[in-house]
Design goal:
The chain is an alpha+beta fold. The chain has 3 domains: 289 residues, Pnp Oxidase, Chain A, CATH 2.30.110; 118 residues, 3-Layer(aba) Sandwich (UbiD C-terminal domain-like); 79 residues, no CATH class. It contains 16 helices and 23 strands. Helix 4 packs across helix 7, helix 6 packs across helix 7 and helix 14 packs across helix 16. The termini are far apart.
Length: 537
Amino acid sequence: MKPLAENFRQFLDRLRSGGHMIDMKQPVDIRHIATLVDQSDKALFFHNVIGYDMPVVSGIIRSRERAIMSMGCTEYGEIEQRLRHGIDHPIAPRYIETPAMKQVIMKGDEVDLFKLPVPMSSIYDGGPMITAGVVMASDPEYGLNSGCYRFMVKEKNLTGIDIVTPNNMRMYAQRAFEAGRVCPISISIGTHPMEIMGANFRAPIGVDEMGITGGIRGVPVELAQCETIDLPCVADAEMVLEGEILPTGWTNPEGRFGEFTRLMGGLHWNPVVRIKAVTMRRDPIYYALHMPWENTWLAAPTRYAAIRAALKNAGVQVKDINVTLGGCAFWHAIISIKKQAGEGKNALLAALSVLDLKHVVVVDDDIDVHNAMDVEWAIATRVQGDRDVMIIPGARAKPLDPSLAVMPHGVVPTGAKVGIDATIGEGIPRERFERIAYAYADKAKIADYAGGKQDPAPAKDDMADASISALADAILKVIATEPLYYSAVAERFAQHTFQAVARALGKLHTDEKLWQDPRGRLCVRGSAHAAKVPGKN
Protein backbone atom coordinates (compact mmCIF):
# COMPACT_ATOMS: atom_id res chain seq x y z
CA MET A 1 0.00 0.00 0.00
CA LYS A 2 1.22 3.50 -0.79
CA PRO A 3 2.20 5.33 2.45
CA LEU A 4 0.02 8.29 3.41
CA ALA A 5 1.71 10.74 5.79
CA GLU A 6 -0.99 13.38 5.27
CA ASN A 7 -2.15 15.27 8.37
CA PHE A 8 -5.58 16.66 9.29
CA ARG A 9 -5.05 20.08 7.73
CA GLN A 10 -3.58 18.65 4.54
CA PHE A 11 -6.69 16.48 4.17
CA LEU A 12 -8.90 19.55 4.59
CA ASP A 13 -6.85 21.33 1.91
CA ARG A 14 -7.33 18.35 -0.40
CA LEU A 15 -11.09 18.47 0.16
CA ARG A 16 -11.12 22.20 -0.49
CA SER A 17 -9.04 22.04 -3.67
CA GLY A 18 -11.16 19.19 -5.01
CA GLY A 19 -14.41 21.07 -4.50
CA HIS A 20 -15.54 18.78 -1.67
CA MET A 21 -15.68 21.46 1.03
CA ILE A 22 -17.40 24.84 1.28
CA ASP A 23 -15.79 27.69 3.22
CA MET A 24 -18.49 29.66 5.02
CA LYS A 25 -16.95 32.97 6.07
CA GLN A 26 -20.10 34.79 7.14
CA PRO A 27 -21.11 34.80 10.85
CA VAL A 28 -22.99 31.59 11.71
CA ASP A 29 -24.85 30.76 14.92
CA ILE A 30 -23.35 27.57 16.43
CA ARG A 31 -26.89 26.25 16.97
CA HIS A 32 -27.35 26.13 13.19
CA ILE A 33 -24.20 24.14 12.34
CA ALA A 34 -25.59 20.59 12.64
CA THR A 35 -28.62 21.17 10.44
CA LEU A 36 -26.55 23.00 7.82
CA VAL A 37 -24.14 20.07 7.62
CA ASP A 38 -27.09 17.70 7.34
CA GLN A 39 -28.39 19.63 4.33
CA SER A 40 -25.03 19.88 2.56
CA ASP A 41 -23.55 17.43 0.08
CA LYS A 42 -20.10 18.82 0.91
CA ALA A 43 -18.06 19.28 4.07
CA LEU A 44 -18.52 22.68 5.69
CA PHE A 45 -15.83 24.90 7.21
CA PHE A 46 -17.33 27.62 9.43
CA HIS A 47 -14.73 30.39 9.73
CA ASN A 48 -16.81 32.75 11.86
CA VAL A 49 -18.79 31.01 14.60
CA ILE A 50 -20.56 33.67 16.63
CA GLY A 51 -19.20 33.96 20.15
CA TYR A 52 -16.13 31.73 19.64
CA ASP A 53 -12.52 32.33 18.72
CA MET A 54 -11.98 29.21 16.62
CA PRO A 55 -13.51 27.82 13.43
CA VAL A 56 -15.51 24.59 13.15
CA VAL A 57 -15.29 21.97 10.41
CA SER A 58 -17.81 19.17 10.03
CA GLY A 59 -18.96 16.57 7.52
CA ILE A 60 -15.46 15.75 6.23
CA ILE A 61 -16.18 12.00 5.92
CA ARG A 62 -19.94 12.24 5.58
CA SER A 63 -20.07 10.67 2.12
CA ARG A 64 -18.77 7.54 0.50
CA GLU A 65 -16.52 9.58 -1.80
CA ARG A 66 -14.95 11.62 1.01
CA ALA A 67 -14.41 8.48 3.11
CA ILE A 68 -12.56 6.92 0.16
CA MET A 69 -10.47 10.07 -0.21
CA SER A 70 -9.63 10.13 3.48
CA MET A 71 -8.02 6.70 3.25
CA GLY A 72 -5.99 7.57 0.17
CA CYS A 73 -8.03 5.13 -1.91
CA THR A 74 -9.82 5.22 -5.24
CA GLU A 75 -12.54 2.63 -4.46
CA TYR A 76 -14.54 1.85 -1.34
CA GLY A 77 -13.31 -1.74 -1.24
CA GLU A 78 -9.72 -0.52 -0.92
CA ILE A 79 -10.50 0.84 2.56
CA GLU A 80 -10.85 -2.70 3.87
CA GLN A 81 -7.56 -3.60 2.17
CA ARG A 82 -5.82 -0.72 3.94
CA LEU A 83 -7.27 -1.79 7.26
CA ARG A 84 -6.28 -5.40 6.66
CA HIS A 85 -2.75 -4.28 5.82
CA GLY A 86 -2.65 -2.30 9.06
CA ILE A 87 -3.81 -5.27 11.10
CA ASP A 88 -1.30 -7.63 9.48
CA HIS A 89 1.60 -5.16 9.34
CA PRO A 90 1.33 -2.77 12.31
CA ILE A 91 3.89 0.00 12.70
CA ALA A 92 4.69 1.17 16.21
CA PRO A 93 4.00 4.85 16.95
CA ARG A 94 6.82 7.40 17.11
CA TYR A 95 7.01 9.91 19.97
CA ILE A 96 7.92 13.55 19.34
CA GLU A 97 8.97 16.20 21.86
CA THR A 98 7.51 19.46 20.53
CA PRO A 99 4.09 18.84 18.97
CA ALA A 100 2.07 21.73 17.55
CA MET A 101 -0.87 20.88 19.81
CA LYS A 102 1.18 22.13 22.79
CA GLN A 103 1.58 25.67 21.50
CA VAL A 104 -1.11 26.68 24.02
CA ILE A 105 -1.41 24.89 27.37
CA MET A 106 -4.20 25.47 29.91
CA LYS A 107 -4.29 23.65 33.24
CA GLY A 108 -6.47 23.55 36.30
CA ASP A 109 -8.65 26.64 36.68
CA GLU A 110 -7.63 27.81 33.18
CA VAL A 111 -9.63 24.94 31.66
CA ASP A 112 -12.94 26.18 30.24
CA LEU A 113 -14.73 23.76 27.96
CA PHE A 114 -17.44 26.35 27.30
CA LYS A 115 -14.90 28.25 25.17
CA LEU A 116 -14.80 25.34 22.71
CA PRO A 117 -17.31 25.65 19.85
CA VAL A 118 -19.04 22.33 20.55
CA PRO A 119 -22.29 22.39 18.53
CA MET A 120 -25.71 21.18 19.49
CA SER A 121 -26.97 18.49 17.15
CA SER A 122 -30.56 17.28 17.50
CA ILE A 123 -33.53 18.87 19.24
CA TYR A 124 -33.51 16.19 21.96
CA ASP A 125 -29.80 16.29 22.85
CA GLY A 126 -28.94 16.48 26.54
CA GLY A 127 -26.20 19.01 25.81
CA PRO A 128 -23.30 19.83 23.48
CA MET A 129 -21.44 16.64 22.56
CA ILE A 130 -17.75 16.26 21.77
CA THR A 131 -17.95 13.62 19.05
CA ALA A 132 -14.60 13.33 17.27
CA GLY A 133 -12.18 12.52 20.06
CA VAL A 134 -9.60 9.75 19.69
CA VAL A 135 -9.48 8.49 23.28
CA MET A 136 -6.47 6.75 24.80
CA ALA A 137 -6.41 4.96 28.13
CA SER A 138 -4.10 2.53 29.86
CA ASP A 139 -4.58 -0.43 32.17
CA PRO A 140 -1.84 -1.76 34.46
CA GLU A 141 -2.33 -5.28 33.09
CA TYR A 142 -3.51 -4.81 29.51
CA GLY A 143 -1.65 -1.70 28.41
CA LEU A 144 -2.71 1.05 26.00
CA ASN A 145 -6.12 1.13 24.31
CA SER A 146 -7.61 3.59 21.80
CA GLY A 147 -11.20 4.20 20.84
CA CYS A 148 -13.72 6.90 19.93
CA TYR A 149 -16.37 7.96 22.44
CA ARG A 150 -18.58 10.95 22.91
CA PHE A 151 -18.50 13.40 25.79
CA MET A 152 -21.39 15.58 26.92
CA VAL A 153 -20.17 18.94 28.21
CA LYS A 154 -21.56 19.49 31.73
CA GLU A 155 -19.33 22.06 33.45
CA LYS A 156 -16.24 24.13 32.66
CA ASN A 157 -14.04 21.11 33.40
CA LEU A 158 -16.50 18.21 33.58
CA THR A 159 -18.03 15.96 30.93
CA GLY A 160 -19.81 12.65 30.72
CA ILE A 161 -18.35 9.77 28.72
CA ASP A 162 -20.65 7.34 26.94
CA ILE A 163 -19.33 3.84 27.65
CA VAL A 164 -22.50 1.81 28.10
CA THR A 165 -21.47 -0.68 25.40
CA PRO A 166 -19.24 -3.57 26.56
CA ASN A 167 -15.77 -2.87 25.15
CA ASN A 168 -12.17 -2.49 26.26
CA MET A 169 -12.61 1.15 27.37
CA ARG A 170 -15.55 0.22 29.57
CA MET A 171 -13.52 -2.63 31.06
CA TYR A 172 -10.61 -0.28 31.83
CA ALA A 173 -12.98 2.17 33.53
CA GLN A 174 -14.72 -0.64 35.41
CA ARG A 175 -11.43 -2.04 36.70
CA ALA A 176 -10.35 1.42 37.86
CA PHE A 177 -13.73 1.99 39.54
CA GLU A 178 -13.53 -1.32 41.39
CA ALA A 179 -10.02 -0.40 42.55
CA GLY A 180 -11.26 3.00 43.74
CA ARG A 181 -8.96 4.96 41.45
CA VAL A 182 -9.37 7.36 38.55
CA CYS A 183 -8.87 6.19 34.95
CA PRO A 184 -6.77 8.76 33.05
CA ILE A 185 -7.68 9.39 29.40
CA SER A 186 -6.43 11.65 26.63
CA ILE A 187 -8.93 12.99 24.08
CA SER A 188 -7.34 14.06 20.78
CA ILE A 189 -9.69 16.23 18.70
CA GLY A 190 -9.03 17.20 15.08
CA THR A 191 -7.05 14.16 13.93
CA HIS A 192 -6.82 12.68 10.47
CA PRO A 193 -9.65 10.19 9.69
CA MET A 194 -7.06 7.41 9.64
CA GLU A 195 -6.56 7.81 13.39
CA ILE A 196 -10.34 7.72 13.85
CA MET A 197 -10.62 4.54 11.81
CA GLY A 198 -7.77 2.83 13.63
CA ALA A 199 -9.19 3.80 17.01
CA ASN A 200 -12.65 2.54 16.03
CA PHE A 201 -11.32 -0.91 15.10
CA ARG A 202 -12.08 -3.24 17.99
CA ALA A 203 -8.69 -4.89 18.32
CA PRO A 204 -8.09 -7.76 20.76
CA ILE A 205 -7.21 -6.68 24.27
CA GLY A 206 -3.54 -5.77 24.51
CA VAL A 207 -3.23 -4.77 20.83
CA ASP A 208 -2.27 -1.13 20.23
CA GLU A 209 -4.75 0.42 17.78
CA MET A 210 -2.29 3.19 16.97
CA GLY A 211 0.11 0.52 15.73
CA ILE A 212 -2.68 -0.68 13.43
CA THR A 213 -3.21 2.93 12.34
CA GLY A 214 0.49 3.16 11.51
CA GLY A 215 0.10 0.05 9.37
CA ILE A 216 -2.90 1.65 7.64
CA ARG A 217 -0.89 4.79 6.96
CA GLY A 218 2.31 3.00 6.05
CA VAL A 219 4.21 5.37 8.37
CA PRO A 220 4.27 5.63 12.19
CA VAL A 221 1.58 7.65 13.94
CA GLU A 222 3.23 10.49 15.83
CA LEU A 223 2.32 10.63 19.51
CA ALA A 224 3.26 13.04 22.27
CA GLN A 225 3.23 12.73 26.04
CA CYS A 226 0.45 14.53 27.91
CA GLU A 227 1.18 17.31 30.43
CA THR A 228 -0.82 16.22 33.47
CA ILE A 229 -1.43 12.48 32.99
CA ASP A 230 0.87 9.60 32.14
CA LEU A 231 -0.60 8.93 28.70
CA PRO A 232 0.17 9.70 25.06
CA CYS A 233 -2.03 11.67 22.67
CA VAL A 234 -2.04 12.23 18.89
CA ALA A 235 0.70 14.79 18.27
CA ASP A 236 -0.90 16.18 15.12
CA ALA A 237 -4.28 16.83 16.75
CA GLU A 238 -5.76 20.31 16.76
CA MET A 239 -6.29 20.05 20.52
CA VAL A 240 -6.10 17.51 23.33
CA LEU A 241 -8.19 17.25 26.48
CA GLU A 242 -6.39 15.54 29.37
CA GLY A 243 -8.83 14.01 31.80
CA GLU A 244 -9.66 11.39 34.38
CA ILE A 245 -12.74 9.19 34.51
CA LEU A 246 -13.78 9.61 38.11
CA PRO A 247 -14.56 6.48 40.17
CA THR A 248 -18.23 7.42 40.53
CA GLY A 249 -19.53 4.42 38.58
CA TRP A 250 -22.33 4.49 36.07
CA THR A 251 -24.48 6.89 38.06
CA ASN A 252 -24.69 10.16 36.12
CA PRO A 253 -27.32 10.92 33.43
CA GLU A 254 -25.89 11.43 29.95
CA GLY A 255 -27.69 11.98 26.64
CA ARG A 256 -29.96 11.85 24.80
CA PHE A 257 -28.11 11.95 21.51
CA GLY A 258 -28.74 11.10 17.85
CA GLU A 259 -27.08 7.71 17.32
CA PHE A 260 -25.64 5.71 14.45
CA THR A 261 -29.02 3.94 14.39
CA ARG A 262 -30.52 7.13 12.89
CA LEU A 263 -32.68 7.24 16.04
CA MET A 264 -32.53 9.25 19.22
CA GLY A 265 -30.77 7.26 21.92
CA GLY A 266 -32.25 7.16 25.38
CA LEU A 267 -30.87 8.56 28.60
CA HIS A 268 -27.72 6.67 29.57
CA TRP A 269 -26.09 6.32 32.98
CA ASN A 270 -22.36 6.86 32.78
CA PRO A 271 -19.28 7.97 34.69
CA VAL A 272 -18.04 11.56 34.53
CA VAL A 273 -14.70 12.92 33.39
CA ARG A 274 -12.76 15.74 35.02
CA ILE A 275 -10.66 17.62 32.46
CA LYS A 276 -7.30 18.57 34.00
CA ALA A 277 -5.73 20.29 31.01
CA VAL A 278 -6.39 21.46 27.46
CA THR A 279 -3.51 21.78 24.99
CA MET A 280 -3.96 23.12 21.48
CA ARG A 281 -2.43 24.86 18.50
CA ARG A 282 -2.32 28.65 18.43
CA ASP A 283 -4.96 28.62 15.68
CA PRO A 284 -6.95 25.43 16.37
CA ILE A 285 -9.76 24.09 14.19
CA TYR A 286 -12.55 22.35 16.08
CA TYR A 287 -13.75 19.18 14.33
CA ALA A 288 -17.38 18.21 15.02
CA LEU A 289 -18.05 14.70 13.72
CA HIS A 290 -21.62 14.74 12.38
CA MET A 291 -23.88 11.82 13.27
CA PRO A 292 -24.96 9.44 11.92
CA TRP A 293 -23.46 9.34 8.43
CA GLU A 294 -20.01 10.65 9.28
CA ASN A 295 -19.71 7.68 11.59
CA THR A 296 -20.94 5.15 9.04
CA TRP A 297 -18.60 5.10 6.06
CA LEU A 298 -15.48 4.23 8.02
CA ALA A 299 -17.29 1.95 10.49
CA ALA A 300 -18.43 -0.60 7.90
CA PRO A 301 -14.92 -1.57 6.67
CA THR A 302 -13.90 -2.51 10.23
CA ARG A 303 -16.72 -5.07 10.12
CA TYR A 304 -15.64 -6.31 6.69
CA ALA A 305 -12.16 -7.11 7.96
CA ALA A 306 -13.45 -8.91 11.06
CA ILE A 307 -16.01 -10.96 9.10
CA ARG A 308 -13.46 -11.98 6.49
CA ALA A 309 -11.03 -13.10 9.19
CA ALA A 310 -13.71 -15.13 10.98
CA LEU A 311 -14.76 -16.93 7.79
CA LYS A 312 -11.16 -17.57 6.84
CA ASN A 313 -10.63 -19.24 10.20
CA ALA A 314 -13.75 -21.32 9.53
CA GLY A 315 -12.32 -22.46 6.20
CA VAL A 316 -15.05 -20.78 4.15
CA GLN A 317 -14.09 -19.14 0.85
CA VAL A 318 -15.69 -15.68 0.66
CA LYS A 319 -16.54 -14.00 -2.63
CA ASP A 320 -18.01 -10.71 -1.36
CA ILE A 321 -19.40 -8.98 1.74
CA ASN A 322 -21.89 -6.15 2.17
CA VAL A 323 -22.30 -4.61 5.62
CA THR A 324 -25.41 -2.68 4.72
CA LEU A 325 -26.32 0.91 5.42
CA GLY A 326 -29.85 -0.26 6.18
CA GLY A 327 -28.30 -2.21 9.04
CA CYS A 328 -26.62 1.01 10.25
CA ALA A 329 -23.22 -0.34 9.10
CA PHE A 330 -23.07 -2.36 12.33
CA TRP A 331 -25.80 -5.00 12.49
CA HIS A 332 -26.49 -6.51 9.05
CA ALA A 333 -24.14 -8.42 6.77
CA ILE A 334 -24.77 -10.20 3.49
CA ILE A 335 -22.02 -12.62 2.54
CA SER A 336 -21.58 -14.54 -0.70
CA ILE A 337 -19.47 -17.69 -0.54
CA LYS A 338 -18.08 -20.26 -2.93
CA LYS A 339 -19.95 -23.00 -1.17
CA GLN A 340 -19.09 -26.56 -0.42
CA ALA A 341 -21.54 -28.89 1.32
CA GLY A 342 -22.63 -27.63 4.71
CA GLU A 343 -20.72 -24.38 4.52
CA GLY A 344 -23.79 -22.15 4.48
CA LYS A 345 -24.39 -22.95 8.15
CA ASN A 346 -20.67 -22.83 9.02
CA ALA A 347 -20.43 -19.38 7.45
CA LEU A 348 -23.42 -18.19 9.49
CA LEU A 349 -21.94 -19.42 12.76
CA ALA A 350 -18.59 -17.77 12.03
CA ALA A 351 -20.07 -14.44 10.92
CA LEU A 352 -22.53 -14.19 13.80
CA SER A 353 -19.61 -14.42 16.23
CA VAL A 354 -18.23 -11.12 14.92
CA LEU A 355 -18.61 -8.00 17.09
CA ASP A 356 -22.22 -6.84 17.34
CA LEU A 357 -23.52 -8.36 14.11
CA LYS A 358 -27.18 -9.11 14.61
CA HIS A 359 -28.50 -10.49 11.31
CA VAL A 360 -26.48 -12.33 8.64
CA VAL A 361 -27.59 -13.66 5.26
CA VAL A 362 -25.29 -16.08 3.43
CA VAL A 363 -25.80 -16.52 -0.33
CA ASP A 364 -24.15 -18.36 -3.18
CA ASP A 365 -21.53 -16.68 -5.34
CA ASP A 366 -24.04 -16.06 -8.16
CA ILE A 367 -25.87 -13.52 -5.96
CA ASP A 368 -24.87 -9.84 -5.93
CA VAL A 369 -24.65 -8.93 -2.25
CA HIS A 370 -24.99 -5.23 -3.12
CA ASN A 371 -28.29 -5.76 -4.95
CA ALA A 372 -31.15 -5.91 -2.42
CA MET A 373 -33.54 -7.44 -4.96
CA ASP A 374 -31.03 -10.18 -5.80
CA VAL A 375 -30.60 -11.02 -2.12
CA GLU A 376 -34.33 -11.03 -1.45
CA TRP A 377 -34.80 -13.27 -4.49
CA ALA A 378 -32.28 -15.73 -3.06
CA ILE A 379 -34.17 -15.76 0.24
CA ALA A 380 -37.48 -16.25 -1.58
CA THR A 381 -36.29 -19.10 -3.83
CA ARG A 382 -33.65 -20.92 -1.74
CA VAL A 383 -34.80 -20.76 1.89
CA GLN A 384 -36.99 -23.11 3.88
CA GLY A 385 -37.56 -21.54 7.28
CA ASP A 386 -37.39 -24.73 9.33
CA ARG A 387 -34.14 -25.72 7.68
CA ASP A 388 -32.33 -22.51 6.85
CA VAL A 389 -33.15 -19.93 9.55
CA MET A 390 -30.92 -20.05 12.62
CA ILE A 391 -31.73 -18.16 15.84
CA ILE A 392 -29.15 -17.81 18.60
CA PRO A 393 -30.67 -16.39 21.81
CA GLY A 394 -28.81 -14.84 24.71
CA ALA A 395 -25.96 -13.34 22.67
CA ARG A 396 -24.12 -10.13 23.47
CA ALA A 397 -26.17 -7.16 22.32
CA LYS A 398 -25.51 -3.47 21.85
CA PRO A 399 -27.41 -1.34 24.38
CA LEU A 400 -28.31 1.14 21.63
CA ASP A 401 -30.51 -1.50 19.94
CA PRO A 402 -34.00 0.02 20.38
CA SER A 403 -35.71 -3.35 19.88
CA LEU A 404 -34.34 -4.71 23.17
CA ALA A 405 -36.47 -4.81 26.28
CA VAL A 406 -35.78 -2.06 28.81
CA MET A 407 -33.16 -3.37 31.22
CA PRO A 408 -32.54 -2.42 34.87
CA HIS A 409 -29.75 0.10 35.36
CA GLY A 410 -26.34 -1.55 35.24
CA VAL A 411 -27.49 -4.71 33.46
CA VAL A 412 -25.79 -5.32 30.12
CA PRO A 413 -28.45 -6.61 27.70
CA THR A 414 -28.38 -9.77 25.63
CA GLY A 415 -30.38 -10.41 22.50
CA ALA A 416 -30.95 -12.78 19.62
CA LYS A 417 -28.79 -13.22 16.55
CA VAL A 418 -30.41 -14.47 13.36
CA GLY A 419 -28.76 -16.20 10.43
CA ILE A 420 -30.39 -17.01 7.10
CA ASP A 421 -28.74 -19.61 4.89
CA ALA A 422 -29.95 -18.51 1.45
CA THR A 423 -27.60 -20.82 -0.43
CA ILE A 424 -28.86 -23.66 -2.61
CA GLY A 425 -29.53 -26.62 -0.33
CA GLU A 426 -27.61 -29.85 -0.59
CA GLY A 427 -29.22 -32.42 -2.87
CA ILE A 428 -31.20 -29.85 -4.85
CA PRO A 429 -30.37 -29.86 -8.61
CA ARG A 430 -28.53 -26.70 -9.68
CA GLU A 431 -30.60 -26.47 -12.87
CA ARG A 432 -33.56 -25.45 -10.73
CA PHE A 433 -31.72 -22.18 -10.26
CA GLU A 434 -30.66 -21.44 -13.81
CA ARG A 435 -31.73 -17.87 -14.42
CA ILE A 436 -33.66 -16.75 -17.46
CA ALA A 437 -31.20 -15.89 -20.22
CA TYR A 438 -32.81 -14.68 -23.41
CA ALA A 439 -31.70 -16.20 -26.69
CA TYR A 440 -29.46 -13.98 -28.83
CA ALA A 441 -28.95 -11.44 -26.03
CA ASP A 442 -25.29 -11.24 -27.08
CA LYS A 443 -26.20 -10.30 -30.65
CA ALA A 444 -29.53 -8.50 -30.69
CA LYS A 445 -29.14 -5.06 -29.07
CA ILE A 446 -32.09 -2.70 -28.78
CA ALA A 447 -29.91 0.34 -29.42
CA ASP A 448 -28.96 -1.06 -32.81
CA TYR A 449 -32.56 -1.73 -33.80
CA ALA A 450 -33.73 1.63 -32.49
CA GLY A 451 -31.08 3.07 -34.80
CA GLY A 452 -32.55 1.25 -37.79
CA LYS A 453 -30.70 -2.08 -37.92
CA GLN A 454 -32.37 -4.75 -40.10
CA ASP A 455 -31.78 -8.48 -39.93
CA PRO A 456 -31.09 -10.29 -43.23
CA ALA A 457 -33.82 -12.77 -44.09
CA PRO A 458 -32.69 -16.35 -44.89
CA ALA A 459 -33.59 -17.79 -48.25
CA LYS A 460 -37.25 -18.66 -48.42
CA ASP A 461 -37.75 -22.32 -47.51
CA ASP A 462 -39.82 -24.78 -49.44
CA MET A 463 -42.60 -25.76 -47.03
CA ALA A 464 -43.47 -28.88 -48.99
CA ASP A 465 -43.63 -32.08 -46.94
CA ALA A 466 -40.53 -33.55 -48.61
CA SER A 467 -38.41 -30.52 -47.79
CA ILE A 468 -39.58 -30.41 -44.18
CA SER A 469 -38.90 -34.16 -43.88
CA ALA A 470 -35.35 -33.66 -45.14
CA LEU A 471 -34.76 -30.88 -42.62
CA ALA A 472 -36.25 -33.04 -39.85
CA ASP A 473 -33.85 -35.87 -40.73
CA ALA A 474 -30.90 -33.46 -40.58
CA ILE A 475 -31.98 -32.19 -37.16
CA LEU A 476 -32.52 -35.76 -35.90
CA LYS A 477 -29.01 -36.71 -36.95
CA VAL A 478 -27.55 -33.81 -34.90
CA ILE A 479 -29.53 -34.37 -31.71
CA ALA A 480 -28.87 -38.10 -31.82
CA THR A 481 -25.29 -37.40 -30.77
CA GLU A 482 -25.71 -34.11 -28.88
CA PRO A 483 -28.89 -33.04 -27.07
CA LEU A 484 -29.60 -29.36 -27.81
CA TYR A 485 -31.94 -26.73 -26.46
CA TYR A 486 -34.59 -25.54 -28.89
CA SER A 487 -32.78 -22.22 -29.35
CA ALA A 488 -29.52 -24.04 -30.13
CA VAL A 489 -31.25 -26.08 -32.83
CA ALA A 490 -32.67 -22.88 -34.34
CA GLU A 491 -29.17 -21.37 -34.33
CA ARG A 492 -27.51 -24.49 -35.74
CA PHE A 493 -29.97 -24.40 -38.67
CA ALA A 494 -30.15 -20.62 -38.99
CA GLN A 495 -29.82 -20.86 -42.76
CA HIS A 496 -33.47 -21.93 -42.66
CA THR A 497 -36.38 -19.81 -41.57
CA PHE A 498 -37.54 -20.29 -37.97
CA GLN A 499 -40.91 -21.50 -39.28
CA ALA A 500 -39.26 -24.25 -41.29
CA VAL A 501 -37.23 -25.41 -38.27
CA ALA A 502 -40.35 -25.35 -36.07
CA ARG A 503 -42.29 -27.41 -38.65
CA ALA A 504 -39.41 -29.93 -38.91
CA LEU A 505 -39.33 -30.37 -35.14
CA GLY A 506 -43.11 -30.66 -35.18
CA LYS A 507 -42.80 -33.52 -37.69
CA LEU A 508 -40.28 -35.33 -35.45
CA HIS A 509 -42.73 -34.98 -32.57
CA THR A 510 -45.60 -36.31 -34.73
CA ASP A 511 -43.43 -39.25 -35.77
CA GLU A 512 -42.69 -39.92 -32.06
CA LYS A 513 -38.96 -39.48 -32.60
CA LEU A 514 -38.50 -36.32 -30.51
CA TRP A 515 -37.95 -36.28 -26.73
CA GLN A 516 -36.15 -34.25 -24.06
CA ASP A 517 -33.33 -35.04 -21.67
CA PRO A 518 -33.58 -34.27 -17.90
CA ARG A 519 -32.28 -30.73 -18.51
CA GLY A 520 -34.94 -30.00 -21.13
CA ARG A 521 -32.73 -30.33 -24.21
CA LEU A 522 -34.11 -31.95 -27.38
CA CYS A 523 -32.93 -35.51 -27.98
CA VAL A 524 -34.03 -38.72 -29.70
CA ARG A 525 -36.86 -40.60 -28.03
CA GLY A 526 -35.70 -43.86 -26.49
CA SER A 527 -32.01 -42.90 -26.60
CA ALA A 528 -29.64 -43.00 -23.64
CA HIS A 529 -30.09 -39.24 -23.31
CA ALA A 530 -33.88 -39.33 -22.99
CA ALA A 531 -35.56 -38.50 -19.70
CA LYS A 532 -37.46 -41.40 -18.14
CA VAL A 533 -41.17 -41.15 -17.51
CA PRO A 534 -41.78 -40.96 -13.74
CA GLY A 535 -42.95 -44.27 -12.33
CA LYS A 536 -41.83 -46.27 -15.35
CA ASN A 537 -38.66 -48.23 -16.00
